[in-house]
């Protein structure tokens, strides 16, 4: 067994793209080696990445494919050997197979007698296969954005390739990617190691060779180093400040992928800036400077920050860098303070008029138009909610909708666009417009992802629903629906948020009710929401795909109800009786489909007790009729678990029916009655789920 190493040396890769590219490269290399019979279950694939490199190390690699023996089948024996001698067809087949005609044999199978040839295939070496096939895999990595960098050359990549390491044990694999030939030399830290090549003697020496050149290629190790350093530096200042760094997992991941040799230092800023809202201060530190906020023992922001450097410096250097970071942050805070104070001179109410000059979408209109449309949708939503007996402050809701987009005209939002909505909520609070109004505006863009929380108030939830559903239907109306991987207006994210709010808020609203408030009746929009609900059930809630398909086939409008049905299906799908019933329903659907294709005529009038002559069909009729009312009542109560358990008790009657009754009887009256019977069974018990969608092993 051998070891293999591949390292792609690049100009700096955007941090947000590194993790997925590292995983994809590892998967592509693994799939290639398994496909080519070079890597078995004893093998191991390890990936590495830094801003300047992607790497894969493989252990347990075969040096060559095993030789194989293949049986080829050629023309019929009579054609190949018409007179007992090898004819032209036999000679041609032998030449193609690479054997002598005398080595051909007779093969007898179900179709007759044919010419056969046993061919020995020599396994290719790992080096040859990797050199030939790996470049295509590397250049096939998906990047959200990539580039050409060699004039007249076809390859595209996220950044220009600058060096390439490809080793099989201690030997260089002679492969080439984008004009760069593989070698043994990597590169170390740009500042701490300079341009001196870093020779990799063998794959097993990769990590230590780079660490000696001030590069930690292991992402998990860098993450551990950063977290440990953040803790250590915080402890060093906490003795007097009682401080701790504010946990921020996404920022940790960002700085992990921005560094090769991380260290941490802290800085401070004037306490006067703490008069600004924490959201503003943290956004400046986090999003603009990649600084970690520091908080006191009560969780309040302290006038300090931590920053992760991609270098190693002495005390003098740390002092210079700290002062530079403090100077930059102070300047940003001054800007924020100025914008905050300037914005307060114009109220949110006065800013609504200014939205006439802010474009929402060039084919649709301004944000003033968007606001008016949102108000109408929100009013309809409020009517629906109130009609169900749920209390809400409709005046506060409509005021929040009216003011929701007005912070787009604020200088603070123009400077810090990621604070849109949040700034509006803060301004509403500062201008004493009411906490309900302020909270709704503040949370209008949550949930921003499937991991995010929904707004904490009914008014905030309805504002979020109104804004998003209007955007979706308006964009569909002008032909801007998402296509494939393209979704420039983030409509999938908007629909995901709507589904999540309906799933977790308890609002008495269905998807069709939410869509109808826009005045749009578009089948494409309804299908889009069904697809997003399916995504939520599978990818967020973790239900099996066949459970989701089964539940949604019986109804995809009431989100909490769909969740409840998926939960009930998941609970019973392992039982033998339920699986048998699911198989029977699949059979019923197939029979009915085939009957429809043949033009069979049957209806409920065909189904009478006198029309059913066999005991088994009579027993199924009695059992299903008696059970239908019980199941309907349980469905009405949304007691789906008991309903499914009750349906599973049909199994003996269904099994006996299919064992002894021929549905497609030659007698047309019997055939119609039996088709009507299984149709009634299908209709009567498919309201919870389409059981035929359940996969039976």
Which word captures the global form?
flat
Total DSSP helices: 26
Taken as a percent bin, the fraction of beta residues is 5-15%
Structural class: alpha+beta
Rg of Cα set? 34 Å
Summed over residues and divided by their number, the pLDDT gives a mean of 92
N-to-C span: 38 Å
- Order the strands across the largest sheet as they lie in space: 2-3-1-7-8
Low-pLDDT residue spans? none
Helix content: 40-55%
Count every beta strand, where a strand is a DSSP E run of 2 or more residues.
Answer: 18
* Major β-sheet annotation: 5 strands, antiparallel
Task: Provide a short characterization of the protein structure.
The chain has 697 residues and is of the alpha+beta class.
Describe the structure.
- With 697 residues, the protein is α+β, with helices and mostly antiparallel strands.
- The strands form 6 sheets. Strands 2-3-1-7-8 form a 5-stranded antiparallel sheet, covered by helices on one side.
- β5 and β6 (112-121) form a beta hairpin.
- It is flat.
- The model has no long low-confidence stretch (mean pLDDT 92).
List keywords for this structure.
697 residues, alpha+beta, 26 helices, flat
Walk me through the topology.
Layout: E1 2-10, H1 15-35, E2 39-50, E3 53-61, E4 68-76, H2 77-80, H3 88-97, E5 105-109, E6 112-121, H4 126-139, E7 161-168, E8 171-172, E9 176-177, E10 180-181, E11 185-187, E12 197-199, H5 206-211, H6 219-241, E13 244-245, H7 249-256, E14 263-268, H8 278-289, E15 291-295, E16 301-309, H9 315-343, H10 348-351, E17 359-361, E18 365-366, H11 367-387, H12 394-403, H13 411-415, H14 422-430, H15 435-442, H16 458-477, H17 491-505, H18 511-516, H19 523-540, H20 545-553, H21 559-572, H22 576-597, H23 615-636, H24 640-648, H25 651-660, H26 668-684
Antiparallel strand pairs: 1-3, 1-7, 2-3, 4-6, 5-6, 7-8, 9-10, 11-12, 13-15, 14-16, 15-16, 17-18
Helix pairs in contact: 1-4, 6-7, 8-9, 11-12, 11-16, 12-15, 12-16, 14-15, 15-16, 16-17, 17-19, 19-20, 20-21, 21-24, 22-24, 22-25, 22-26, 23-24, 23-25, 23-26
